[in-house]
C-alpha cells in the first residue's frame, strides 16, 4: 500500500516536470531566422523619402532625425544553401539573398526590412559592416549607438570603408568562397594574420574612437575588375568623420607607428652604389618604442622602430648580394625608406588632425597634468597634434636572404 | 545541527570565494571606472581592502564565539533586546540583498541573451533553485560551493588571459585618475560587492577547527579580490575608460570581444554567461541560506527547512520592485553602502564591546584572586 503511494507521488512529480521539457523560451529554429551576414550602408539617393515604407513614422513627421537618409543593403543567408564543407559541383543557386531598404537610421531601416521579410531578422552572425566612403565622411557616430545597444551584434564583427557604393560589395561574388560576405570577413581576418593590416574589429574601433588621445582607422576596400576586392589603404578618421585615406604601402608604415609586431609589406630598396638597381626587402617583424616628452612645455614624440626584414627579390642579375657589406647597405636603404615613409605618413595625418597612431594616449598617460591643462577634449588634442614635433628613427636587421646565394 | 562540525578550512575558503563572486562581476569595472577613471584598479584595491577588514572583523568575532553566529552572540554582547533589534536589520538586509541579486541576474539575462523570456521567469527560477537547495543542511551547503568553485574561477581566468592580446597598457595610466573623495565612494561601492562574505558568521560554528577560520578568510579575500582586480585591469586595458562608461556590463563585453585562438569558439560570452549563472546561483544560494538560517536562530526554531519556501514570495516581490535598470542600479548602490554599516561597522562595534567586556571580566577575575 505504501509502495503504491510512493509510486503515485513519483509519477505526480514527473508530470510536474513535464512542462519544463518544452525548453527554451527564446528558442527559434534556424529556418525561421533571417540571418543577416553583412550590412552595407550607403547614402540614400534622391527620392528615398518616397520609397520608404511608413513603418516607424508617417511621412513628413517632424520628429525624424535630420541627418541624411541611408540605404542599407543586407545579405541574408538562405537556410540550407550555405555549404558546411567543401562541396563538389555545388549548384548554381545563390546562397544569400540581397535586399535593399532605406531608412533614417540603421534600426529604422531594419524595421523597414522586417516588414518585407517573413522570418525574424537575426543579427547574431553579422560578420561585416561596409560603410561607403560618402557615409564615413559624414560621420559614423550615428551608427554606434544601435550597434552597441543591440545584444546580438558581436564586437568582433569587422567594419570596413568602401570606395564604391557599399551595396556593390553585397552583390559582388568572389569565387574563392561560396558566401560572399564570409569571404570578405575572412579577408579582413587573414589580412591581420598576414601582417597586412592591424587588428581592426568593430569593438577595437569603438575603444579607439572613445579614447581621447587617438583617432580611429578602418580598412579601405576597393573593387578591382568584376570579382576581386582589394584592400586599398587605410581610412583615417578625425572624431567620427573619415578625413582621408592612405595608400596600401602606408599601412605598413602605420603599423610600424603603432608597433604592430607582424610585418608584411615590402619596400623597393636601392642598392647603394648601383643607382638603378633595386631589391625587394620585406619586413618580417618589428618592434616600436614611442617616447613622449615635453620640450619646453611643447609635446614631442620620438618613434623608434626596429625592423627585422628579409630580402625577397632582386631583379637584376648584374648586381650581387654576396658580402656582409651588401646586406648592411640594404639595411641602410630599407631604414631610410621606412623612415621617410613613416615621417610622411605622420605629416599627412597631422594635416587632417587625425592622430591614428595614438600619440595623444602617451601624453594622457604620462603627463596627466599637461593633459588636464592643455587638452581636456579630443578636439583639443587634434589641434595640438597638428603641430606636434616628432623624430623617427628606424633600424633594420636583415637576417635572411632566401635560398639563393649571390 | 550546531553539533555537526564537519566543514574543513578548505571548504570554508571555497564557500567564501563562490559566495563573494556573483552578480557583481559584470558591472564592477563600470563602478570602478566611474569613480576613479584610470585609477579604477586602485579603487578596486581600496574596495578589497575595506571588504577584507570587514571580513576579518566578522571572522575574529566568530573565533571568539566559536559555536555561535552573529544572531546569537549579539544578544550576549549587546543584551537580549538590543541584540534582537540589530539582528532584525541583518535579516532584512540580507533578504533585500538576495532579492536584488536575483533581480540583477534577471535583468542581465533578459537584456543580453534570453530576450523574449519574461523577467519574472528568470527571477523565479533562480529563487526557486536557491530555495530548494537551501533546504539542505550546512554540510551539503559546503559541498555545493566546494564543487562549483573551479567552474567559476577557470573560465574567468581564461577570458582574462585571452583578452589581454587586445590590451593597451596606456589605458591604465595615470594610476591615480580622479580626486580622493570620489575614489573613496567608489571603493565603498566595490566593497559592497563583497558583502556575501558575511556568510562566515554562519560557517564558523560548523567548522572542524574554528581557530583556522582566519586562514580561510585571508585566502578567500586574496583569491576573490585578486580575480576582481584582474578583471578590472583587463577590462580597462582592453576598452579604455571612456568606452567602459558606455557599457552596462563591461565584463560581459570583454567576453564578447574575446574569441579563442584558431576559431574554436568565436565568441566566449555564452560560455562566460553560463559560468556566471553558476556564480550567481552560489551567491544567491548563500545569502538566501544566511537569511533563513538567521530567521531560524532569531526565533530559536529547530529547523530552517520550512522557512525556505515561506520567505520565497517576499524575496520575489522585493526583487520585482525596481522599475527599470537605472533605478535598480541606483538602489543597489544605496543598499550596498547602507549595508556596509551592517556588515562592517556593526560587527566592528560588537568586537570592540566584546573585547572591552572580556577585559573587564579578566580584570575583575584577577582582582578576586
From TrEMBL, chain B:
Gene3D superfamilies: Amino acid/polyamine transporter I. GO terms for cellular component: membrane. Keywords: Germination, Membrane, Transmembrane, Transmembrane helix, Transport. GO terms for biological process: spore germination. It is found in: Membrane. Belongs to the amino acid-polyamine-organocation (APC) superfamily. Spore germination protein (SGP) (TC 2.A.3.9) family. This is Amino acid permease. It comes from Peribacillus asahii. The lineage of its organism: Bacteria, Bacillati, Bacillota, Bacilli, Bacillales.
Amino acid at each position: 500500500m505504501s509502495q503504491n503511494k510512493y509510486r503515485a507521488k513519483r509519477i505526480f512529480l514527473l508530470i510536474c516536470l513535464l512542462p519544463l521539457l518544452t525548453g527554451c523560451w527564446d528558442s527559434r529554429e534556424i529556418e525561421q531566422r533571417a540571418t543577416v551576414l553583412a550590412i552595407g550602408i550607403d547614402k540614400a539617393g534622391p527620392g528615398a523619402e518616397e520609397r520608404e515604407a511608413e513603418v516607424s513614422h508617417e511621412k513628413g513627421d517632424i520628429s525624424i532625425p535630420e541627418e541624411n537618409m541611408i540605404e542599407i543593403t543586407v545579405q541574408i543567408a538562405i537556410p540550407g544553401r550555405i555549404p558546411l564543407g567543401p562541396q563538389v559541383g555545388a549548384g548554381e543557386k545563390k546562397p544569400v539573398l540581397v535586399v535593399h531598404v532605406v531608412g533614417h537610421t540603421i534600426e529604422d531601416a531594419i524595421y523597414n526590412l522586417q516588414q518585407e521579410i517573413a522570418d525574424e531578422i537575426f543579427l547574431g552572425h553579422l560578420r561585416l559592416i561596409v560603410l561607403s566612403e560618402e557615409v564615413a565622411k559624414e560621420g559614423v557616430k550615428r551608427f554606434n549607438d544601435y550597434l552597441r545597444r543591440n545584444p546580438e551584434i558581436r564586437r568582433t564583427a569587422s567594419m570596413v570603408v568602401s570606395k564604391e557604393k557599399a551595396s556593390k560589395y553585397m552583390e559582388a561574388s568572389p569565387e574563392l568562397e561560396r558566401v560572399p560576405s564570409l569571404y570578405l570577413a575572412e579577408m579582413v581576418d587573414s589580412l591581420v594574420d598576414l601582417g597586412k593590416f592591424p587588428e581592426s574589429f568593430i569593438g577595437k574601433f569603438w575603444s579607439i574612437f572613445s579614447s581621447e588621445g587617438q583617432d580611429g582607422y578602418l580598412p579601405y576596400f576597393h573593387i578591382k575588375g568584376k570579382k576581386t576586392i582589394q584592400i586599398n589603404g587605410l581610412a583615417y578618421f578625425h572624431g567620427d568623420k573619415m578625413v582621408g585615406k592612405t595608400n596600401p604601402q602606408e599601412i605598413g608604415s602605420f603599423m610600424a607607428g603603432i608597433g604592430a609586431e607582424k610585418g608584411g609589406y615590402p619596400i623597393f630598396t636601392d642598392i647603394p652604389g648601383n643607382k638603378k638597381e633595386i631589391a625587394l626587402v620585406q619586413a618580417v617583424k618589428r618592434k616600436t618604442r614611442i617616447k613622449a616628452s615635453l620640450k619646453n612645455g611643447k609635446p614631442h614624440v620620438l618613434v623608434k622602430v626596429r625592423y627585422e626584414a628579409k630580402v625577397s627579390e632582386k631583379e637584376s642579375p648584374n648586381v650581387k648580394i654576396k658580402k656582409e657589406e651588401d646586406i648592411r647597405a640594404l639595411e641602410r636603404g630599407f631604414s631610410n625608406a621606412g623612415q621617410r615613409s613613416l615621417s610622411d605618413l605622420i605629416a599627412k595625418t597631422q594635416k587632417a588632425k587625425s592622430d591614428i597612431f595614438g600619440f595623444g594616449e602617451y601624453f594622457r598617460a604620462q603627463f596627466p597634468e599637461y593633459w588636464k591643462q592643455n587638452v581636456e577634449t579630443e578636439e583639443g588634442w587634434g589641434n595640438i597634434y597638428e603641430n606636434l614635433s616628432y623624430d623617427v628613427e628606424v633600424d633594420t636587421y636583415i637576417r635572411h636572404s632566401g635560398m639563393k646565394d649571390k | 545541527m550546531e553539533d555537526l562540525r564537519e566543514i574543513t578550512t578548505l571548504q570554508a575558503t571555497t564557500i567564501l570565494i563562490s559566495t563573494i563572486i556573483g552578480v557583481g562581476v559584470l558591472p564592477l569595472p563600470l563602478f570602478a571606472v566611474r569613480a576613479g577613471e584610470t585609477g579604477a584598479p586602485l579603487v578596486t584595491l581600496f574596495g578589497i581592502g575595506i571588504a577584507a577588514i570587514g571580513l576579518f572583523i566578522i571572522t575574529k568575532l566568530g573565533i571568539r564565539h566559536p559555536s555561535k553566529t552573529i544572531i546569537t552572540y549579539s544578544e550576549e554582547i549587546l543584551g537580549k533586546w538590543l541584540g534582537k533589534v540589530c539582528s532584525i536589520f541583518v535579516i532584512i538586509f540580507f533578504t533585500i540583498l538576495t532579492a536584488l541579486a536575483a533581480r540583477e541576474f534577471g535583468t542581465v539575462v533578459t537584456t543580453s541573451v534570453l530576450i523574449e523570456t519574461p523577467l519574472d521567469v528568470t527571477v523565479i527560477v533562480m529563487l526557486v533553485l536557491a530555495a530548494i537547495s537551501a533546504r539542505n543542511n550546512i554540510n551539503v551547503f559546503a559541498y555545493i560551493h566546494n564543487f562549483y568553485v573551479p567552474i567559476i574561477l577557470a573560465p574567468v581566468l581564461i577570458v582574462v588571459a585571452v583578452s589581454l592580446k587586445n590590451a593597451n597598457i596606456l589605458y591604465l595610466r595615470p594610476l591615480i585618475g580622479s580626486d580622493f573623495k570620489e575614489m573613496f565612494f567608489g571603493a565603498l561601492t566595490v566593497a559592497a560587492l563583497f558583502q556575501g562574505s558575511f556568510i562566515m558568521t554562519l560557517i564558523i560554528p560548523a567548522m572542524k577547527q574554528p581557530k583556522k577560520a582566519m586562514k580561510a578568510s585571508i585566502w578567500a579575500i586574496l583569491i576573490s579580490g585578486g580575480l576582481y582586480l584582474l578583471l578590472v585591469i583587463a577590462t580597462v586595458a582592453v576598452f579604455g575608460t571612456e568606452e567602459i562608461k558606455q557599457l552596462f556590463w563591461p565584463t560581459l563585453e570583454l567576453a564578447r570581444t574575446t574569441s579563442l585562438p584558431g576559431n574554436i569558439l568565436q565568441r566566449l560570452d555564452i560560455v562566460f554567461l553560463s559560468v556566471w549563472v553558476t556564480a550567481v546561483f552560489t551567491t544567491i544560494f548563500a545569502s538566501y541560506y544566511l537569511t533563513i538560517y538567521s530567521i531560524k536562530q532569531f526565533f530559536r526554531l529547530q529547523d530552517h527547512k520550512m522557512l525556505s519556501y515561506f520567505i520565497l514570495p517576499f524575496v520575489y516581490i522585493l526583487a520585482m520592485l525596481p522599475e527599470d535598470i537605472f533605478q535598480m542600479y541606483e538602489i543597489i548602490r544605496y543598499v550596498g553602502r547602507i549595508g556596509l554599516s551592517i556588515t562592517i561597522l556593526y560587527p566592528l562595534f560588537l568586537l570592540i564591546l566584546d573585547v572591552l567586556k572580556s577585559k573587564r571580566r579578566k580584570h575583575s577575575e584577577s582582582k578576586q584572586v
